[in-house]
Design a protein that fits this description.
Layout lengths: L28 H5 L3 E3 L2 H7 L5 E3 L11 H23 L3 H4 L7 E9 L23 E2 L18 H20 L1 H5 L4 H4 L4 H12 L9 H4 L8 E3 L5 E12 L2 E16 L9 E13 L1 H6 L3 E10 L41 E5 L5
Parallel strand pairs: 3-9, 3-10
Antiparallel strand pairs: 1-2, 4-6, 5-7, 6-7, 7-8, 8-9
């Protein structure tokens, strides 16, 4: 009886009958699955009535030999990578732009004297009439900065301290520096702004406009050097600075100060008439981690009240103090508003200035 491994007809002549003889032509399962031509099954041939007993597989190149699980995993990886690239490009990244997507919005309320004329003050002691209880101090001493050691959930004490110091320098440059106030200098203010806002700042100087975004007086307190001079380099200040964290990437610093300037007409003798001009200035700064590291600020909001001024004076380029002796309105209200009069800024409001407390 023959060997069970041999063919029924016996071993072919010249053959050994060993499995090793056929090993080179035995195809493994992966080779069979990768074949481009496969034979139809018996049921397919009976039910389909196919004219050919074979079918062609769609070629997939090198991927055709990969197992199904590997192909599925590869597809998922491609989809994940595509999604990551898409959202990485389209989602806003404030940190990368340091203030990208923000611009200053400003508003000014002009304060006009309630009655009578703009009074003169003693030029040797222009601030002598201020009440001692009002809390005014000289210059930055009146800023009311937050206590040292302040921190937030995502900004360390060192970062908050650096941010507050940058805001302090911005306030000094934009509210106290004589070169900015009456000499037309702007570089000290611009240098402290984040790059994303510098273009808007430049436009506010080249083409100042009463559109709530391009008023030079929204960025800084400034007077026309041809009309106004300082009677004293001292500015009286009262107010405070506060720090909050609206989100993990933003440090919000807000300042609210009342500033009193001693001014006189430009070009007159040093003993010319002196008056006080008051500006209440409320600012909001947003600083990213990038802003803090670069010692720059993003100024978001600027709201001002300034007077005594005339309601009809344009204030986008310079603040316009009324000179000593000029009368305010005879009524307790600034008057009616004509919505058809486009010569008057729509955003610039006017109110009556309350008398100072003595």
């Amino acid at each position: 009886m023959g060997d069970p491994g041999e063919p029924p007809e016996g071993v072919p002549e010249g053959g050994s009958g060993s499995d090793d003889e056929y090993r080179s032509v035995v195809f493994d399962e992966s080779f069979v699955r990768a074949a481009r031509i496969t034979e139809l099954s018996a049921s397919e041939r009976l039910s389909g009535g196919a004219a050919h007993a074979i079918r062609h597989r769609l070629g997939a190149g090198p991927l055709g030999s990969l197992p199904r699980q590997a192909l599925t995993l590869l597809l998922l990886l491609v989809l994940a990578f595509t999604a990551a690239v898409y959202f990485g490009v389209t989602s806003p990244q404030r940190e990368a732009g340091s203030g990208a997507g923000t611009e200053l919005t400003s508003e000014l309320t002009v304060l006009t004297p309630a009655a009578g004329i703009v009074p003169a003050v003693d030029q040797s002691s222009p601030f002598g009439s201020l009440a001692a209880t009002a809390g005014y101090a000289d210059g930055s001493a009146g800023f009311g900065l937050p206590a040292a050691g302040t921190s937030t959930a995502h900004f360390s004490q060192a970062q908050v301290s650096a941010a507050v110091d940058t805001v302090r320098r911005y306030l000094e440059a934009s509210e106290l520096a004589p070169a900015v106030l009456v000499q037309g200098e702007t570089t000290p203010v611009r240098a402290l702004l984040a790059p994303a806002e510098q273009s808007q700042f430049d436009q506010s100087l080249t083409t100042p406009s009463d559109d709530q975004h391009h008023a030079a007086t929204g960025w800084m307190v400034r007077f026309d050097p041809m009309r106004i001079a300082l009677a004293s380099d001292t500015v009286k200040v009262a107010g405070s600075v506060k720090v909050t964290e609206p989100d993990s990437g933003t440090l919000e610093i807000s300042s609210d100060h009342t500033l009193i300037y001693a001014v006189r007409p430009a070009g007159v003798a040093s003993n010319g008439p002196v008056s006080l001009y008051t500006v209440r200035r409320e600012l909001r700064f947003d600083l990213s981690h990038t802003d803090v590291a670069a010692n720059q600020v993003t100024l978001v909001d600027s709201v001002e009240q300034a007077g005594p001024s005339s309601c009809g004076a344009a204030q986008a380029e310079y603040l316009q103090p009324l000179p000593v002796g000029n009368a305010g309105p005879s009524t307790a209200a600034p008057g009616t508003v004509d919505p058809a009069d486009h010569a008057v800024p729509a955003w610039q409001s006017c109110a009556v200035m309350a008398a100072p407390k003595s």
